Amino acid sequence: MENKEESFRYFIDLCFYGTHYHGWQVQPNAASVQQTLEKAASVLLKEQITMTGTGRTDTQVHARHFTAHFDTLHNPGVIKELNLVYKLNSILPADIAIQQIRQVKPQAHARFSATSRSYEYIISRKKDPFMVNRAWRMERKMNFNLLEEATNILLEYNNFKSFTKSNTQVNNYICNLESASWQKKDHLWIFTIRSNRFLRNMIRAITGTLTEVALGKISLMQMREIIESKNRNKAGYSVPGYGLYFLGATFDDEIFLSSPL
Hints:
single chain, 261 residues, alpha+beta, Alpha-Beta Plaits, 2 domains, 9-stranded mixed sheet, 6 helices, 9 strands
């Protein structure tokens, strides 16, 4: 009887500037963060490494704190001795940075073990060369109070079918929003939203709809009607991906078996 080699599971935390990537997930004939990271880890660990992310991000979307898991034959002592975080950062492109690696329980999953996820969307209210591909430039007159009122309406609902792509195979549109709010920071308007899960394209569609309320194109009553219609065609446009940032996911402490290696 053959002895099966023991494998170890790790969570790897990273951040990335998404402008040059077609999102996290591997895409045919297109650069992705997952593919780039898997290639680097496979070279250093001398085995085929597959990364599973906490979610998928669209083209040009950024991440301030993204989590993935991977399995390897290397135990924690070897990972620490290899100084894997440093070595990965040495060979990865400048727009991807590893923050830490921690051993987790074998059943821990970067996607399914996450208890909540947070994003932010940044709107630049004036031309700013330093925010190119980092924020959506929108200089038209918008009512910030209406923006906040429309955002508060979101928190009264949990079915967000109106804000996801209609051609997906998803059959569960329930998302339990924990918070959603806007803040002004100089000339930037920043939308932050937190939920147990998000639908594909959901935040970009919500942001586009909210800005149409702020522009006076959609009333607060119509905002409710859009959500209740469960019809993507009734909601607003999808704002550009480069203004969206994945802020991070939360996990129960009990899944971690080590401090950062």
